[in-house]
Every structure is written in structure tokens, then in C-alpha cells.
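User: Quick sanity check before I run a bigger batch. Here is a single chain. Can you write out its predicted 3D structure?
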Amino acid sequence: LQAQPALPLLAWGPHPAVLAHTPRQPRLRSAPVNAFRLGRRASRPSSCSAHPPRCWPQVVRRRAGQHTASRKRMAHAAHATNLRQAYALLTASSSEAERRAANEWLVGFAKTAEAWGAAEELVRPSEAAEEVAFFAANLLYSKIKTEWHTLADAPRRQLRDALWSAACGRPSGGEGQPGPAARRLCLALAAAAARTEGLAEESTRLALSLAAAADAVQGGLAVELLGALANEVVAEEEATGAASPGRSGLRALAPAVLCALQALAPLSSSMCIGCLRALQAWLALNAGPSLASLYAGQGPLLAATLNALAAVNNEPLNLAAADALGELLTSTNSPLPASAPRGARDAAEAVAAQFGVLAREVRLAELLMSGEPADDRLFYFCRALCAFAERCVDLVAVTEGSLLPLVELLLLCAGGELRVAELSIDFWVGLQDTAVAQRHERLRAPLYRRLATLLLDKCTLPAEFTSWDEAAEDEEEFRRFREQSALEVLGACLSLLACEFVGQLQAMLQGSPPWQKLEAALFVLRGLHVQIKGALRGSAADGEGRPSAAAELQAALNQLLGFVFGQLAAWRPSGATLLVESAMRLVGAFAKWLQRDEALLRGCLRLVLEAVQAGGAPEHAAEAFRALCIHGRRRLASAAYLSELVGPCTALAGSAALASSVRLTLQEALARLVGAAPSPAEAEQLLHALVRAPCEQLAALLPHLPPSDGASVPPETAPRASDGSDGSRGSGGEAAATAASTQGVEEAVATQLALIGAAIRFSDTIHVGGGGSCAAHPVFAVLSYCWPLLQDASRRGGPSVLQALLELHGRAMGCLGGGLAPLLPSILEQIGTTFCRRPVVGALECLTQAIELYGESHEAPLSDTLERFVDAVCGWLASTAAPEAEPELLSAFFELCHRCLVFRPQLLLSLPCVASLFDAAAACVAHQEFQHTRAAITFLCLFLSGTDAANLYRESAAHCLQRSGGTLLRYCVQGLASASPANLVDHQIELLRVIAESAPTAVHGWLVAALADPGLDLGALPRQGAAAEAFVRGAAQQHATVAAFHCVASEFSRVCRGKAR
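Assistant: Done. Predicted structure follows.
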């Protein structure tokens, strides 16, 4: 045990909870101890024989080997007994504590070397319990996937033979198919084969020889192994991003595998399912089989796959066939361009004809037109049919007529239920890749008239629809179909049918249509708004200056839009919520078109404000109001109209009945109009009107927030509200009510601050003429008016209040720029105090913006504030037990430091705490969270490499590297080897390269010390070996190119992570 300090003590024996339920047995020593003692006894001559015979050494060695193998088997049997009993305790015990203890022991034991032998014992045919054998096989499968690289060649061969022998000897399941344990053993063998050169080919030949017997039991095992081999090769390649060692030789065996599957598929229904799944797996290898090759060489297998789609009362068989055909019809396996050779065209036509026969057999037209939901059999058939049609769409487009029946089948699918109709969309979209003039005449306008009618009907809610709670349709499915599928094809209908399609939409709006039909027309107009606006911007004349078809389309579109918005401008929003929602989204989409007509613009403004007030679709109505204000601000910027508009809008923005996001949207929309005010005086008046109500609300709310004591409290030591169970005074209910009340007040205060910030957001377009000072800017006047309230909020607010306040300061900086200088010292003091009391991301972002804008003119106060920030964050990182608990905060902090190095490096590099900052950033290098770790690495790279502006302060960086460079490099190597996620490896490599360039003479020693550190987890890489030495030489090599360095470090990371050898 002392020789293995890295392994937990319980890994060498059963858990105490297991022993409590184990009959008393003779004490067994662990395998390593037995081997050691046996070797010592075998190497000592017998005292009874002073003159041993001449052959004594050979005899002793042979007997010692026999005894060693016997002892090893005994040790494996003992571990297997413990493993079986622990599993029984985990699955059968009624005690939660015993199950938890058994699970902990099993997890620990699974990581030991003894688990290999114990699991191998439990998968033997002598193990009667199938569930125990399955558990052991699954344990082997997991260990092979993670620890196969740790085994030498001899143990690998031994385990492979044991797996196959156990799989062949395990009892079969129903219909001669392998049982669960045998299937899992095949998967384990396949996982080993995918990670070993040549083993996959050898295992495939073994399975083919077994399949040649055409026996149901042996054939089932062969099919299971064949499918598992292909699946594991694909999975290994997806995990590593490189070709699997097991792929070699499989391509040449693919035809033989397909022939074997063809011979075995007719034996039984379950055998056919297994063959189709194996076929899908081998097709996923992209090893050569295609639709044309299957049709020519394995026609019966292709026919069996197609016929399985129509099998009655056999959903697993239908699904297996659909999956296999879907894999066969991928672009990598079966490309079928219009120029495909004659053999591929024949195969496509034959399969299309077979689909026609099967469609009649499954009663496709009758079932889809009935309106009833499609069962699984029909859905899988439609899925395979649409996949085939989408793959050969180029052949269909230029067909002379033989493939036109396939189009009729696709039209039936387009008229079916939504999930079936959605399957056909890729075919209709793919048809657009062939020019209209090259298509069959029946695939031009006649086809798209039928399509437009079908899809407009699909986009219309049922006549009996009232709400989603009572509807038969699924809301998410319906919206996805309309937004992502139907609109794409309807856009093609508009392009091809032009005025005819516009006429169809116009007809849907005439008379007194039901609201569902009206809503569908508004939805289509909004969904195609980009295409419609593009058509309206196009040229209205042909090359000779005569009116063209484009001019006719523009006239039809303008007429349709004028009619629609004329009706909406006079409409009082009421009725179905979905109708109001579609109308609001349509207004927002065509806000730019509406600004051409002031009457329509103002009518639609009234409409959306009434919709906000009515509450039918307030979010969409507010967004439409903002769009109208953005695009129509020039027409609406008269002082009289703005004064008339501000009153009701500010009332809505101040309404607590509306969501805060709606109120902020309305306020930002009004701010757009204020930014376009005719004069600064009028803009100031309007701004005061916008912030008056929020300021009044702040004045009423702030006294309900207790003032802060100003002390900074780390997150992990923050006091918790007492529930009274610890004997503390007060009622838990009262404390909870007080906390809830305080939280509600804080949210209300944060909303009012956000409303003030939204009011000034777009005021940077206001220019004070005549050389006026920045103090005359309307925003400065508004801030001065609000300033006492803002200071009080900074003293009382919690995190949400402080975040909103800091965002307000950031917007003020963006609007006023240098004009904020008189208030800047007070703002910086507020930011610093706020951050030290309650660290929030907004303080870091606000200071970053201040350094970029005022770094040159206000260096002293910025330096003081920056030092407070650095001290606070570094102190927290050094003391916390959970340094990754605040990723957003750390990301913003290192972004602040990085931007400071870019704009004003002297502010950061002259700080006395720069060494603590370097250490804090180094400690974050080996973190797992992506954003803040990348930010820390980016900062360190710039800190070490420096900029031209930082040359005067290079001694600070050099001192930090000299003092803590080895520690930083160790963290970097740890990240490369195991700690960092895969998307951070390239960033770690770049940091390691910068370290090597910055300290070329020291990096070799640092690397040697890091790799020798037993606390550094190097994964699969031996600490002392050729790979480690090669990495040290390559990383420490001076004058190496960037590409060469990245190659060395990347290969080191892959080896450590078990992705390369």
C-alpha cells in the first residue's frame, strides 16, 4: 500500500458497507503483494537440496510462472467477488447510505488497475447473472475508452481475446440475438479496435467469418460486432478530430460487409433490424457505398431496406430502415448532380418507382389528406421519401418526365401535418438551384401556384382556434414551421409568380375575412419584408427604358402596402392577441416605408401606443414604436408634435403595470426623437420631461432602502437570513418578507435609473452651437438635476441598482465626452466606493471607458481608482475558495487591465500592486471557464510582450516574470495538459510561446521543474520519457518559428489528453 500512495485505500479492497453484507471468507492478499512474495520465494534455493539438479533454474521459472498466474487468477476472483457484491448492494439495498457508500467504492475501484481483471472475470460465460455481466462489460467499455493507451501490447491482446471469447459464450437473447452483456462486450471490443492499428480490420474479418455460417445466433453476434466497429471508429474520429487508427483496411472490406448483411437480413425481423443498423453505421464511415453501388451490387439489400419502410406493426424496423436510407442519401455517400452518370440516374429512377409502389401500400395520399396525425410508420416513410427527393433534386429538376411522380408525392407531404410538411421543405428550396428555363415545364409556375396555396393554408390558424392552451397544434412547432420553413418557399413563390402571388395575398384581405386568414396575410407580408423592400428598391425600367415586370411588381406591392397600412392606421387594436402581434410586427418591419407618408406614420404611431396600453402584445408594439421613431424622426421632430407625444409616452413608460423591458423600449424610442429636436433648448426641455417621472419615483423609493455601511463583504462570508431554527431572534417569515420587499424596491430603483439612462442614450447628436460650453449641453443639465438622487442611490443600492447606475454613467460619458470633466472626480469616487463595497461588472466597464476617454487629462484620480480595483480583485482571488465563482466579474476585470495596457499603460504598470496583479492573472490561467481564462491569458500575453507606449515601464514586467515566471509557466503547462477545455488550448499555446520569447534562458529550467512536479497532472504523458524530453527541447528552442512552436505544444497537449501517442 505504501508503494501506491496515489491510489485510495479503498481501491485495494471492498468498501466497509460491502464487507458488512459479505459472508466471512478467507483473507486474500492483493495481487501486487502476492506477486512480490512469490517472486521472493521462487528466487531463493531450497535448503533441502544442497546440490540442485542441472535443470533447476528452468523448473523454478516454470513453476514460478504457473504459481504467478494462479495467484493472479485468485486475486482477480477476489476482486470480482467484491465487485459483484458492491453492485448487488448498490442495486438491491434498501438503505440510501449503503447505496451511496457502495457507489463511492465502485467509482474509486473503477479507476484502479485491478478493475480490468475483476471485470474480465465477471463477463465470462460462467457468470450466470446477465445484469452483473452487463455491468462488468460496461465497466470494461468505459475503461477502454479512457485508459486503453495505458496498456501494453500483451495485455491488450489478452483482453481482446477474453472479450471475444466471453461474447461468444454469453447466452443469446430473443430470436437468437445477442443478449445485453454480449452486445456490450461487442461494443467494448469495437472501442479497442478503433484505437488500435489493424485491430478493426482483424475484428471485421472475424465477424465476417462468423457471419458466413448463416446461423441466427452467430449471425446476430457478427452483425452486432460489425455495427459496433463502424460506430466506434466514427465516434473516435469525432472525439479526436483525426483519422482513427482502426479505419485502415475497412474501406476494402465494405463490399464484403454489405454482402454479409444482405445474406443475413432475411433470417428474421430482429436480424433485419440489426443488419439495417449495421448498414447505417458502415455508411457513416463514408467508405465508398452509394445509392448507385448498392443498386448495382447489393440490390436485394437495397430492396429489403425500402420494403422495411412499409412493414406493418414493426416500428423499430421502420425506424432502422429510415435511418439507414438517410445515411445512404447524404451528400458524401450519394452525390446525384444533374450530370450524374447513367448508372446513378437508373438507380434514382428505380428507387423513385419503388417509392411510388410503397406509397400506395402505406396509403400515403389517403392518410395525409384525412387530416389525422401520421403514425410512426407513415412518418418514417415520409422522412425517407423526402430525403431521397432532396438528394436527387437536381435530377428531378431536369427530368424528362420519369421523376415527376416523385414531385406529386412531395406535394402530398407538403399538404400533410406540419411535421410531415416540414420534411419536404429542403426539396422545394433545392429546386431553386436550377434555373427556371432549365426545369421541366411542370416544375415552373404551375408547381408554385399549387405550392403557394398549400403553404398559405398551412400558415393559417384553424378557424376554431382561440388560444394555444386549447389548440391541437403545438405553438413551438407551428411558429417554427412558419418562420423557418414556409417563408423560404413562399419567397420563391413571390420571385416566380410576382404579381400573381401579390394578388393571392390581396385576395386574403378582401371583404370580411376571419381573423385567422387576416393574421396569416399580415404574417407573410412581415416575413417577406426584406424581399419586398428589395423589390421596391429595384429598377422599374428595362434596358431600353420601358416599364418592366419589376415596375408592375412595385406598383402591386405599393398598392397592397398602402391598403394594409391604411386599414391599420384606422384600426383600434382589439381581438385576438396573435392578430395584434402580427400587426405590430408588420408595422415595425415596414417603418422605413411608412415614413414616406406622414399621415400613415402618425396613424401607426397611434396604433402601436394604443396596443401598448391595451396590453395585447406590448413587447412587439413597443418595438414597432421604436422602429417608427428611428425611421420617422425627421418627420416627427417638430416641437409641437413632440410635446404632444411625450405626455402619453412618459405615462406609459412610468406605468408599473408594464414590464420594465417595454418601458425601456418606449423611453429609448422617445430619446431618438429628442436627439432630433430642432434646438438644444427644446431638447433640454424634452429631456427634463422624460426624466421627471423617474426622478420623482427615485425620490419616493430611495428612503425605503437602508444605507450601506460601506464595508466590502466577500461572497462566501456574506451573512445569511436566519430562519429562527438556530435560536436567533426574530421571525423567519418577517425576515423573508423584509428581504422580498427590499428586493422589490431595488428592482424598481434599478428600473428608474435605467429609464434615466435610456433618456440620454441618443443625445450625442445634440450639438450646442455658437461655441457654447459643454456645461450648456442638455445632458449635463439633466445630470446636474438628477445628481443628488444618483449619489443617494450609490450609497443605498444593491448590485442591480449599482449596475444600472454605472451603466448610466457610461452613457453619460459617451454623450458628453470631455464635457463630463467637472463631474468626473465625483463619478470616479462613486465608482471606486461602489466596487469596494459591492463588486459589480458595471464598475469595471465604466472605469474602462473612463480610462479610454480621460486617461490623459485625469491620470491621478484614474490611477487611484484603478489601484483600488486591482487591490480588491487580487485580494479576493487570494482568499476565496471558489475563484471561478464570478466569471463575468473576472472577465471584465482582465479586460479592463488589457485595455489599460493598450491606451494608458503607465497607469497600470506604475502601480505598486502590479506584482499581485501578475500573480492573480497567472492563477487564473489554469481555470476551466472560457471567458475569464481567455481574458487573463490575453492580458498576460500583452503584459509580457509589451507595447511601444509601455517601453518606459518594461522593468515592471521583467521583475514579475523573474519572480513568478516559473509559476506562470507551470499553470500554463497544467492548462495545456489537462485543466483547460479544448477551446482554450490555442490560447495556452500562445501564452507559452510569449513566455519562451520573454525569458529564453530560463524557460528550459522552468519546463523541467514543472514536468518533474508530482502535483502537475500530465494525463497520459509519462513524466520521464522521450515525449516529455521532446516537448522541453521543442518549447525551449530559441528562434523557432511560430508554426513550429505551435506544432510542438499542440502535440504535447494531444498526447497528455490521450488523443495521440
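Residues 1-65, 710-732 have pLDDT under 50 and may be disordered.

User: Great, the batch can go ahead then.
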